[in-house]
């Protein structure tokens, strides 16, 4: 019950709704699920990607009436209600998705109970809500205090991870590889980064328009200048794009789901990957570009629409991807990217 606003976007994931709801990159978005049955496995205490639900609204066709799973603690409806998140069901999500695909992601409102009024009043409220273009949101979702995720097993490396809206699985995937991860606030300085004496620096995913991320871009340039091994995911890829001098732009309706085909152009292999992005980097696909940090190339591309899905520097140890190798939720095809980061750090030590 209540009212809510946000940018309406659709996700094609058939599973993984808990990870979607709790991904900070969905802050200020109303997520429409294309899969008709959502909530079948209830809500557990293990799968959230952060401490709370971040979507501003949730749209499903047919919520499970009887969730069933050995890990389930409560129903999706109970969880949304407990966290005060407005959801709506019984919607023809296929028609709504086609509308968003034809007209593009757009601001919407969901109204119920006392919030319901005449159409003109509701439309005016939606139009008064902020656009996603120009939104600077990392500061609203990122940690205020630095914290450490310890390495699992023997510690091999230290990484400084800039939290722009990080998902919990990302430091976990690094910890599994013997990395001690120092998660730093979005406002961290180069001094904060080098105070942890890192073997590598990571820039996370996050909500909002990358064109507003001036501080992370300046910070990344400082890291590139020192040639510290660098890895970025999603927002981190857009920030690398900007740090190299490329532009970013808003996609018509974005990529969201766990079944997106991406080609790694360095090996030719195709991987099925998890995505959640509404913006993309504008970089030439055909040949490497000269940048202030040496040559850079587009390392990964989406096979549905040729959108840039990864960048790689040829003269410095830095790369990034626009999608989600941490695979929460999603297929594990892209897990090798964390190993590539480890190789870069090993190379720097040799
Ligand atoms: N998951 C992300 O990091 C998303 C990045 C950015 N906010 C976008 O929508 O493109």
Automatic annotation (TrEMBL):
InterPro entries reported for this sequence: Anth_synth/Amidotransfase, CarbamoylP_synth_ssu, CarbamoylP_synth_ssu_N, CarbP_synth_ssu_N_sf, Class_I_gatase-like, CPSase_GATase1, GATASE
PANTHER family: CARBAMOYL-PHOSPHATE SYNTHASE SMALL CHAIN, MULTIFUNCTIONAL TRYPTOPHAN BIOSYNTHESIS PROTEIN-RELATED
Region (CPSase): 1-156
Biological or metabolic pathway of the protein: Pyrimidine metabolism; UMP biosynthesis via de novo pathway; (S)-dihydroorotate from bicarbonate: step 1/3; Amino-acid biosynthesis; L-arginine biosynthesis; carbamoyl phosphate from bicarbonate: step 1/1
Residue ranges of every copy of the Carbamoyl-phosphate synthase small subunit N-terminal domain listed in the record: 1-111
Annotated catalysed reactions: L-glutamine + H2O = L-glutamate + NH4(+); hydrogencarbonate + L-glutamine + 2 ATP + H2O = carbamoyl phosphate + L-glutamate + 2 ADP + phosphate + 2 H(+)
Record-given protein name: Carbamoyl phosphate synthase small chain
SUPFAM superfamilies from the UniProt entry: Carbamoyl phosphate synthetase, small subunit N-terminal domain, Class I glutamine amidotransferase-like
Coiled-coil stretches noted in the UniProt entry, renumbered to this chain: none
Binding site for L-glutamine: 25, 206, 208, 235, 238, 276, 278-279
EC number: 6.3.5.5
Active site: 234 (nucleophile), 324, 326
Subunit relationships: Composed of two chains; the small (or glutamine) chain promotes the hydrolysis of glutamine to ammonia, which is used by the large (or ammonia) chain to synthesize carbamoyl phosphate. Tetramer of heterodimers (alpha,beta)4.
Naturally occurring in which organism (per UniProt): Streptomyces yatensis
């Amino acid at each position: 019950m209540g009212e809510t606003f946000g940018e309406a976007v659709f996700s094609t994931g058939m599973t993984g709704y808990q990870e979607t709801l709790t991904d900070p990159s969905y802050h200020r978005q109303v997520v429409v699920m294309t899969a008709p049955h959502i909530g079948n496995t209830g809500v557990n205490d293990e799968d959230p990607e952060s401490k709370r639900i971040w979507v501003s609204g949730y749209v499903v066709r047919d919520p499970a009436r009887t969730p069933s799973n050995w890990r389930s603690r409560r129903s999706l409806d109970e969880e949304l209600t407990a966290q005060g998140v407005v959801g709506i069901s019984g919607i023809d999500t296929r028609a709504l998705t086609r509308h968003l695909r034809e007209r593009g992601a757009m601001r919407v409102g969901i109204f119920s109970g006392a919030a319901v009024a005449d159409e003109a009043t509701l439309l005016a409220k939606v139009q008064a809500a902020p656009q996603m273009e120009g939104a600077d949101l990392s500061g609203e979702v990122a940690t205020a205090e630095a914290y450490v995720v310890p390495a699992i097993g023997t510690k091999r490396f230290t990484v400084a991870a800039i939290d722009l809206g990080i998902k919990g699985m990302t430091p976990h995937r690094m910890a599994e590889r013997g990395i001690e991860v120092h998660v730093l606030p979005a406002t961290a300085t180069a001094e904060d980064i080098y105070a942890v004496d890192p073997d590598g620096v990571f820039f996370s995913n996050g909500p909002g328009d990358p064109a507003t991320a001036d501080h992370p871009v300046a910070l990344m340039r400082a890291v590139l200048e020192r040639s510290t091994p660098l890895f970025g995911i999603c927002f981190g890829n857009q920030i690398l794009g900007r740090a190299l001098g490329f532009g970013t732009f808003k996609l018509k309706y974005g990529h969201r789901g766990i079944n997106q085909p991406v080609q790694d152009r360095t090996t030719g292999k195709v991987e099925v990957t998890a995505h959640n992005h509404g913006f993309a980097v504008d970089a030439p696909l055909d040949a490497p570009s000269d940048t202030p940090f040496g040559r850079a190339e587009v390392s990964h591309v989406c096979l549905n629409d040729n959108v840039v899905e990864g960048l790689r520097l040829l003269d410095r140890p830095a790369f990034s991807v626009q999608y989600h190798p941490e695979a929460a939720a999603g297929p594990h095809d892209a897990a090798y990217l964390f190993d590539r980061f480890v190789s870069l750090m090993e190379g720097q030590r040799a």
